[in-house]
Amino acid sequence: MRRRFQMIVMCAAVAVCVLGMAQTPAVQARSLHAGPLYTSSTEFPKVRVLVDVPPETAKASLDPASFALQGDNGTGAASPGTQVQTLAETGYGMAAVVMLDVSGSMLGGPLNAIRAGLVKFASQVGLQDRAAIATVADETKWETNWNDSPDQVKAALAGLKSRGTLTRLWDGLLEVLGKYPETPIARRLIVISDGHDEGSRHTLGEVIAEAGKQHVVIDSIGMTRSDPKYLLNLAQLSTSTGGSHRAATSLPNLEKLVGDGIERYRNLPVVTFQAAGATADGKSHPFLLTW
Prior knowledge:
This protein is α/β, with parallel strands linked by helices and 291 residues long. It is 25% helix and 27% strand. The protein has a six-stranded mixed sheet, with helices on both faces. A four-stranded antiparallel sheet has the order 1-14-4-5, with no helix packed on it. Strands 2-3-13-6 form a four-stranded antiparallel sheet. Helix 5 (204-214) links the parallel strand 10 and strand 11 (216-222). Helix 2 runs parallel beside helix 7 (251-259), helix 4 packs parallel to helix 5 (204-214) and helix 5 runs parallel beside helix 6. The radius of gyration is 19 Å and the shape is elongated.
């Protein structure tokens, strides 16, 4: 069955990104994120939009003609897609944070697998990208920051260890969401946890709302040794922000999921359109993108 997604992309005439909500048939209800929107004064009305399609999407379904962009919140003329490139092919970068639960539930094998995956993750960060690693337990700690050198990252990964007695997950996520660099590039957050929050002053709902304000897509990787019901928190966090949730089935699978994060982002489609009817007036305009 063909799936049809609709996203509202609020964009200025010269480049802005925002969260959009998807509407799909009852067989598959989910949120989908579109943005940033890329353009320039010399290219406009040609625009490019990054689309967070699900990880399982077949390449054949990403034909340019399967996408359309309409101005005036969907009431204007529709412009079909003219080209689909991967994010890597465009040369546009991303700002990505990996947030890792280092409470006692991750001690031993899970933490070792995550550490190994993060080594691969860090090696894939390009010159156009910004990346940081944060850990959460009783408090949040930035293990690496946006401008750290490769040697600093290696040292931080080697020193990762379990700590604390609680997992203030929602508090930690809100802290991370408030510290993205002010750059017009895609914002991504990868959460690795069992989804069990303990002792936070804030709620899951607050995290989801803040992610929308900050235009951050949250992917999650779930790993648990106890009650799997808490993984539903991670699934809700991701689907509500346009991201993807995956549950690790084994330690090798956990390592692979962590390590493949940047590679998956690099392969996301960036669709080119001629924005029919849009004017370069410096104001924000709502667009409807359909797939």
